[in-house]
Amino acid sequence: DAGYRILYDPAVAAYHHTNQTGRTVYGEAYWKRNALNKSRVGWRLLPHPYPITIMLIWSAAVLFKTRKPSVVWEVWRSLWHERRLLASERKPIGSKTVQYLKQIGARLLY
Q1: What local confidence, expressed as pLDDT, does residue 87 receive?
Q2: Which of 9, 52, 67, 75 has the smallest count of CB within 10 Å of its CB?
Q3: CB neighbour burial string for 19-34, b if at least 16 within 10 angstroms, e if fewer
Q4: Is the dihedral of CA 5, 91, 107, 16 positive or negative?
């Protein structure tokens, strides 16, 4: 929606060097951080119902991976406390962009 165009070529591969230096998020914290970040991006940029499906699916993933409902509640509690900020920053992409993302097979539901 900002006027940029992104080209995708499935023949291009990006290889990233794995370096554990500086990686401080493991286990429960890793899944909690992932769920929070995916949900924040969804609430800021995606039209409904996608932010809701992202929250639900990532909450299920956190529960499955950690086996701790308390971690899921921490995610939801954090998002609840950030609700005004997320609402003020909310600028969902347009329907043409959603259509394009669906056309190229982008993950919108989660």
Answers
A1: 96
A2: 9
A3: eeeeeeeeebeebbeb
A4: positive
CA proximity to 75, closest of 49, 36, 108: 36
Prior bond of 49 cis (ω within 30°): yes
Residue 62 contacts residue 74 (beta carbons within 8 Å)? no
Task: State the pLDDT at residue 83.
Answer: 97
Which residue bears the tokens 């600028």? 91
Low-confidence ranges of the chain (pLDDT < 50): none
Find out whether 45 and 91 touch, Cβ atoms under 8 Å: yes
What burial class does residue 110 get, using C-beta atoms within 10 Å of its C-beta: 0-12 exposed, 13-18 middle, 19+ buried? middle
Q: How far apart are CA 45 and CA 80, in angstroms?
A: 17
Q: What is the pTM for the complete model shown? A: 0.81
Write the CB contacts of 20 (distance below 8 Å, at least 6 apart in sequence). none
